[in-house]
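Can anyone check this?
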Amino acid sequence: MPVVSSSPARKPRRSRAAQPAPPLGSLTQVQHRENAECGACGSERVTRVAMSLTDGTPVQFVSCHVCEERSWRSAAGPLTVDAVLDRTRKK
């Protein structure tokens, strides 16, 4: 007897153009930190993440492990927390 599935057929995913992954950094290996530093205290003990906000804006997020400063920077310059929240709301 044939097996009948009650779930709808899935559409095949579109493949995206392969983009090379950016090099990964490291908090423990100095040579991999790529001159990232906190804009508030100057510490090099930061986590830096490249991301795209919901509206498509590419940003760099930096979080400091010393003073706990968090910042977002786009190609147009620094973004305030309010600006980031506005750009991440789905409309």
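Reply from J.R.: I decoded it. The longest strand covers residues 46-52.
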